Amino acid sequence: MSDNLSILLLLLFILPVVYMIDTSLVIIRRNAKHAENRLASLTTCMLALMIFFQYLLQLLSAEYTLTIAAYLVYPASIASAGVSLWFHLTAARSYHRFSEARSIGIAFAPLFLYFLFLFLKGESFLFLGVRTQELWKQAVFAPAMYFMYGFLALFTILNVIICLTAAKKAKSVAERKKWMVLFKADLYYQLATIFVLVLVFVLSSYLYIPDSIVFLATIIWGISLRIYMKYDILPSAKKKYELLYQFSPTAIIMLDKNMMIKEANPGALQVLGCQREDEVHNRAFSEFIVLGERDSLKKAYASSFPKSAWRNRELTIMNRQGQKRNILIDTESMAEGEELFVLAVIRDITQQKEEARLVHFLAHHDTLTKLPNRFHFNKELEASLEEVKSSKALLGVMLIDLDRFKLINDTLGHQYGDEALNEIAARLQNTVDERHLVARLGGDEFIILIKKADEYDEIVSLAENIHQAFQLPITLQGQDFYLGGSIGISVHPFDDDSSDGLIKRADIAMYNAKHSGGNQYRLYTNEMIALVQRDVRLEKHLRQALKRKEFVLYYQPQVDLATGRLIGAEALIRWQSTELGMVHPGEFITLAEQTGLINEIGQWVIAEACQQGRLWQEQGWDDFMLSVNVSSRQFMQPDFVNKVQDILRSSGLVPDRLCLEITESMVVNNLNVARKMLDELVALGIHIAIDDFGTGYSSLSVLRQLPIAIIKIDRSFINDMDAYQGGLSIVKTIVSMGHDLRKQVVAEGVETLDQWEQLKRLGCDKAQGFYYHKPLPLTEFNTLLTFHIKK
Q1: What's the pTM?
Q2: CATH level 3 topology of 248-354
């Protein structure tokens, strides 16, 4: 071979190097983060290095040939084969059980073995020497090197086996086709290498062909990579779209012109309730649509295909599991070859629809009783008013406020209060006809819309039935509670023709029922407004009463039953209003509690009583005790004890001359807090009395756990002594129990001589009531005291 031809052949080595490097860069730019891309790029890069080192070997003098061959050319050759196997194993990892670490170990075992031989045995173990011919230089293999190249031949066979196995196990036609492309690329590369080897062997006797030419066969690998990249063996943008199609939770199906399903991704199979694609392939999508929507869907599809797309079309399907699902469908036309298809994207909105229904329910219903709420009631009332305008039917609004509901919360706690409200809600629904509407306004208030009543008596009859339902007890924790309900009724068209007006007038009627003692119903009348207006006036003037010094104290005497001696008094507030005249406590105390003014008023009562008590103390009434009632709101103030202590200090009253009266309901629900406060009050020297004893739920428990010094028997038990023998027995039991517990017993509401004498015989300690004296203003009470001094 001439020198010019040899130089030309030598320069040809540069072209595959440039091509292979370009191929490596193209692969890595497609997706540098993906392992398959990195390995394919590294394989081509190693092949480029191998060819470049072979070119370098030819340029340098023969003395460097063996070193370059041993440390650069053949390590690069073995490494490229190893990386190629690693690439195949990584690409087909879903078809074998080799771990990543094991795959790397297998791929680089020959390279490790090569360097082990090289460093332990030396170059002579792998190469016999150097052969030169004109410009060409070639390291001569020793037998060990043929052994190493046997490994490389084995790797190429393994690559082919991996491709065939993956193609056989492929889950789709497209994936199988891609693996066959890679198989062909491997096969062509091997055939090209064999062809070059045979060509060199046949022509070597006629023409000198350097062994380095064999390395140029690796360019087939670079060319094959460029080819099978088109078929997405390596991840690319197209591959990403395929992965998105396969792994997207969104359902995607492809339909033909007859609405037959041609393809369905896993997301679509899940929505349709199927396991495999063949369950839906070539089946009409309309089969999954519920019967009521099926015909209209077919017509809409036929008219829109393929001209117009659907956007957010809502449908209801019945999947293969028998479940109804609400879906939104978007469509877009697409062509595959000459045939047109529709790509449909389906979103399952069943959960969103259910959540929307739940939100709507919560917006229109009470969370505790599940009854309609105020908002829902108002809408129904307005709609019903529109309906009855054109007819002669009546429409009623019935507002119900529970009586004594606070007793349950105070004695058992709010958990049982909620249980009671649910029981009331159930009773109302069972009592009221289905055409009417029962709602809860909040707290212990319910409201009923009576629709299309033919007669006034029909509304009254319903009120009677509801009133009777409230007479039954509610049993909680083994205890019967009789709540009762105050019911107010307004009727369209007599009372008002607007929703707000009817509710307002029902509220006024309910207020009148409660003001009259509760547990009854009232039909609205215009005269009832006067009562409400009076309460509005009361509140207005009540807020100014303390500043105007309109409150005064009356004193009801307490008498020692054994001696008949005056030993104390209960201070009772009265309101002498400049505008309203004398206002009884029953009219303004509840209002004061509702407005929060009771704290300030109650503090004034204690201070005023203590000031007066000090004056009587200075007059020589050393054993005279003053009793003052304390409201629940006042008692539960965190600084209540400090305020009482300050009043005692400023007034100068001896603490044991003061008795604070509380009720059972004030303490049973917060027993620990109440005990602490009462202990602190007793530590000051103050006496504590339990008022209205016997009417609560936990009377004996309260007596045992709290530092109570005095028991006041409720007036209802005193009255019952005259009514029946059992009433007398109850009072006798209370007196006996009180003495056994070393408590003083005071009888309230003593109005007759007979009651007085019976209490005396029973051993009751003290008494107060109209029999002895009604509550007296200060001047009259001082006269009474003077009379007792003279006696």
Answers
A1: 0.49
A2: Beta-Lactamase (3.30.450)
